[in-house]
From TrEMBL:
<dbReference type="InterPro" id="IPR020855">
    <property type="entry name" value="Ureohydrolase_Mn_BS"/>
</dbReference>
<keyword id="KW-0464">Manganese</keyword>
<feature type="binding site">
    <location>
        <position position="113"/>
    </location>
    <ligand>
        <name>Mn(2+)</name>
    </ligand>
</feature>
<dbReference type="GO" id="GO:0004053">
    <property type="term" value="F:arginase activity"/>
</dbReference>
<comment type="similarity">
    <text>Belongs to the arginase family.</text>
</comment>
<dbReference type="GO" id="GO:0006525">
    <property type="term" value="P:arginine metabolic process"/>
</dbReference>
<dbReference type="Pfam" id="PF00491">
    <property type="entry name" value="Arginase"/>
</dbReference>
<feature type="binding site">
    <location>
        <position position="139"/>
    </location>
    <ligand>
        <name>Mn(2+)</name>
    </ligand>
</feature>
<dbReference type="InterPro" id="IPR023696">
    <property type="entry name" value="Ureohydrolase_dom_sf"/>
</dbReference>
<feature type="binding site">
    <location>
        <position position="240"/>
    </location>
    <ligand>
        <name>Mn(2+)</name>
    </ligand>
</feature>
<keyword id="KW-0378">Hydrolase</keyword>
<feature type="binding site">
    <location>
        <position position="137"/>
    </location>
    <ligand>
        <name>Mn(2+)</name>
    </ligand>
</feature>
<keyword id="KW-0056">Arginine metabolism</keyword>
<dbReference type="InterPro" id="IPR014033">
    <property type="entry name" value="Arginase"/>
</dbReference>
<feature type="binding site">
    <location>
        <position position="135"/>
    </location>
    <ligand>
        <name>Mn(2+)</name>
    </ligand>
</feature>
<comment type="pathway">
    <text>Nitrogen metabolism; urea cycle; L-ornithine and urea from L-arginine: step 1/1.</text>
</comment>
<keyword id="KW-0479">Metal-binding</keyword>
Amino acid sequence: MSENGTFEPNQRSIRVIGAPTDYGQDRRGVDMGPSAIRYGGLSDRLAEAGVATEDAGDLLVPRAEERDPDYRTPSQGKARFLRETEDVCTRLRGEVRESLADGHTPLVLGGDHSIAIGTVAGAAADADIGAIWFDAHADLNTPTTTPSGNVHGMPLAALLGVDEWAGVDWANAPSLSRENVAIVGLRSVDDDERDLIAESEISAYTMSDIDRRGLADVVSDALDVATDGTDGYHVSLDLDWLDPTIAPGVGTPVRGGVTYREAHHSMEQVAEDGGMRSMELVEVNPTLDQHNETAELAVELAASAFGKRIL
């Protein structure tokens, strides 16, 4: 905000990092998400937002078809492609940390949501951070509670060290506290995740909360949660947060998501707050999309989060 209280777009430098992985879920194709997002006009839209952009390219990620799913776990249970996920997230953590040290805001393009382990761990390496999780799902499963073994349903649990994720150094972000985590837009939650939310200090807002209170009010609360005593926050934007009628190109669509205008307004609130430390766009699957509209929507929302306005 300026001294007179009016909003001024953040003049910041963004480093784009692609993490083209589909290890974390069953539906192949999400590894093409970074390419689809770039093709959707990312650099031009960010330029319209008044920010400088540097593209670091994509991490080298071997294809899942070349690897054995190998149900390895931190202790017990099941977690598919865990060894490969560890490798990608460890390298991504280093890229994100280096970007911040160089004065850039990291914008990570997924790939499935398992990459959040690397993004958030990198953002939290040298700071106390909060996190706002815009998602239809809680992502709080563990290898013993997961119904599928897919790590894209576990990144928040991994970062917070929940149960068997505790003490897994590559996956934990000790400077991310549960009381500084807000999940916005929930509408598909497993029983164990529901219990964890009820018993913890995580702030969770369902679509029913949004219907009752309005999304602007909910996002305002989420920003308060993520900024309370922190050095900034990470924004994790899973495109299945939106209703599948406007974002069909995702692997786990859930009806009843946020609308186009609601999504943009939420990202505008993030930009106005000015405390975002890092961001990721995940779960764009071009093979399930229609005319690249989900990737193009991801681009639009990123631009709004970095300050693009109509006037």
